[in-house]
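>> received
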Amino acid sequence: MLALAHPLRLHLLGALRAMGPATATILAERVEASVPLVSYHLRQLAANGFIEQAESPTGDGRERWWRASHQRTSWSRVDFLDTPERRAAEQALSLEVVRRYADAAERWLERSDGWPREWVEAADMSDWIVNVTPSELRAMRSEIGAVIERYASQPKGEGRALVHAIVNLLPRGEVPTR
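>> returned
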């Protein structure tokens, strides 16, 4: 968890997922960091199984190409409740992810006036307050995930853009009584 909690590592992993395989040099330009720093963090991501070496699209063996090992990362907080250290590691990662979500929303708001009207109209930041049981919440999460997965499998092509689908299903208020 701590290996992924670093902001630059999350940024690098996200860039590899969004744009596909890349070298440290390409990624350094993308994330506006030095090549040595990016190389170090790529090695840390690789050591923890988040990324792996990829074949060079040019066949040039002098450059090391990297790709994401998985298209998404998920975990259950409950799996990290056994020790204070594991709780702290999970919380550090979760807090960094929340910051990235907020940054993504801010970037969209700052740049949306430069997008075509149809994209601005299609985008959404809504919230609902629903009254559910834990099993209903799990079912909702599963259904929403299935819809997103169906769209995530669409091929890249003309007229398409990457969309950051951020879903938060968070209990609010007081802990319910039994």
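>> The longest strand covers residues 51-54.
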